[in-house]
Amino acid sequence: MIARALTIAGSDSGGGAGIQADLKTFTALRVYGLSVVTAITAQNTCQVAGVIELPADFVRLQLDMVMRDIGADAVKTGMLSSPEIIEAVAEGVREHGIERIVVDPVMRAKSGDRLLRPEAEEALVRRLLPLAYVVTPNIPEAEVLVGWPIRSREDMKKAAQQIFDLGPRAVLVKGGHLDAGPEVVDILYDGRQFYEFTAERIGTRNTHGTGCTYSAAIAAYLARGDDMLEAIRKAKHYVTMAIRYGFSIGQGHGPLNHFWKEGEAI
């Protein structure tokens, strides 16, 4: 049977992030993609002009329908904008016995627009993080979760330890926002030791959807049977190349090229 990966996230009308990026990633990595839509956004490469949240009970209904019939070998979460949606997803994850869940704690869009209500941050920490197989905050998101600024790799390690204490099985702090030279270093902490994943820093504005794509790729490789370290290593390479061959579309941050393996352009 083909590996199955489920994304629980918001829709990006610009096609570069959210559900759209996740499904492109699943397809590129030869995984059957399923989706639970949590919100609809009106956005482009420059801004998010509007967000409509779906009712929490309908989010849960989507999840139930997918899991009862098709199932999923791994799940990733993205934009979960309200406490009610977070609660619905957390309850569904528990009831369906989902173990390999990648939590991308989406808080803001690349444009800076808020995608997570302030009152939902507590629900994310209290209800969803303890269920995570791995949580994948970037540095601004990690700073929200720990409550202090991250300025170095040592800070990243300390933040990973502090986030780990919130309950996930592992924490991957992504270092792309750290101005630390020609390489981007992400740090994984599994409660026992640290692991570093390094890639070339690519100078480009076309990075819209990077976090969504990275977490979706991790979920895809987990669905295919890789262990956590191998899934992250492969996902890191995939997203780096997708950035390298990204598109100059729109007037803001352009999207990645999720199908770079098919050639340098689609």
Detailed description of the structure:
With 266 residues, the chain is of the alpha/beta class. It has one domain: Ribokinase (UDP-N-acetylmuramoyl-L-alanine:D-glutamate ligase, 3-Layer(aba) Sandwich), CATH 3.40.1190.20. Helix content is 38%, strand content 20%. Strand 1, helix 1 (18-28) and strand 2 (32-43) form a beta-alpha-beta unit. Helix 1 crosses helix 7 (210-223) and helix 3 (83-95) runs parallel beside helix 4. The protein starts with a strand and ends in a 22-residue tail after the last helix. The mean pLDDT is 92.
Could you write a compact summary of the structure shown?
The chain is of the alpha/beta class and 266 residues long. The protein has helices spanning 18-28, 56-69, 83-95, 118-128, 139-146, 153-164, 210-223, 228-244; strands at residues 4-12, 32-43, 48-53, 74-77, 101-103, 134-135, 171-173, 183-189, 194-200.
Work out the count of structural domains: 1
Overall number of strands: 9
Q: What top-tier CATH class fits best?
A: Alpha Beta
CATH-assigned fold name: UDP-N-acetylmuramoyl-L-alanine:D-glutamate ligase
Count of discrete alpha- or pi-helical segments spanning 4 or more residues: 8
CATH hierarchy: architecture: 3-Layer(aba) Sandwich
**Biggest pleated-sheet summary:** 6 strands, mixed
